[in-house]
Design a protein that fits this description.
With about 190 residues, this protein is α+β, with helices and mostly antiparallel strands. The chain contains nine helices and six strands. It has helices at about 5-15, 25-30, 35-50, 75-80, 90-100, 105-115, 120-125, 150-155, 170-190; strands at about 20, 55-60, 65-70, 105, 130-135, 145-150. Strands 1-3-2 form a three-stranded antiparallel beta sheet. Strands 4-6-5 form a three-stranded antiparallel beta sheet. A hairpin with a 2-residue loop joins β2 (about 55-60) and β3 (about 65-70). α2 packs across α3 (about 35-50) and α5 crosses α7 (about 120-125). It is elongated. It starts with a helix and ends with a helix. About 15% of the residues are buried. The model has no long low-confidence stretch (mean pLDDT about 90).
Length: about 190
């Protein structure tokens, strides 16, 4: 298969799948190495951008997806039903942050950190497709483990969890000291 046919096949696969497809699967489909397939995808991405096409190629943790360019969204909503909007309240953002940084995490772990029941927040995040069940912890009661989804990466515009901002150590120590002080005050008042 010549290079042009491989690019056409990759485009067809990404269009038909709709969701992201792992690089290894794309490489196997066109009979190439992952490195060569990655090169072809990079060329396609650059070419589409240069041509000003209505779609773009996006990478999420070693997977690729064909997406509509964000600046053309207004044209889509003229034809298609607007996607369901959801609001991320402070509670949901706090819960989502804990899941993102501590995953895989149980509901109880989230509640220990937040200090309040998190059933509703986790359920809502699962409903929004930002958090998913990853399996069960091998412990008494076999609690569910939660982690973020590819939709989480898309929503926050990052390619992988490594791109999430890191807290600097000084701030982390300040937070620890505050939490310990609050815990001491609670113990004294009990």
């Amino acid at each position: 298969m010549e290079e042009g046919q491989k690019k056409a096949a990759l485009e067809a696969i990404l269009f038909a799948m709709g969701d992201s497809v792992e690089l290894d699967r794309l490489a196997a489909a066109v009979g190439e190495t992952p490195e060569e397939t990655g090169r072809l995808l990079s060329q396609m991405k650059e070419s589409w951008e240069a041509e000003g096409r209505g779609v773009c190629l996006v990478e999420y943790e070693g997977s690729f997806q064909m997406c509509t360019r964000g600046d053309l969204y207004e044209y889509l909503i003229r034809v298609a039903k607007a996607p369901k909007k959801y609001a991320l309240t402070d509670t949901l953002l706090e819960t989502l942050s804990i899941v993102a940084y501590k995953q895989p995490v149980t509901r109880l772990d989230v509640e220990k950190i937040r200090g309040v029941n998190s059933d509703h927040a986790i359920s809502r995040l699962v409903e929004y497709g930002l958090v998913t069940e990853l399996g069960r912890l091998d412990a008494p009661g076999r609690p569910l483990l939660f982690g973020t989804t590819e939709q989480f990466l898309r929503t926050f515009g990052v390619k992988s969890l490594e791109e999430l901002p890191r807290l600097n150590e000084m701030k982390l120590e300040e937070f620890r000291a505050e939490a310990e002080k609050e815990a001491e005050q609670l113990n004294e008042s009990s």
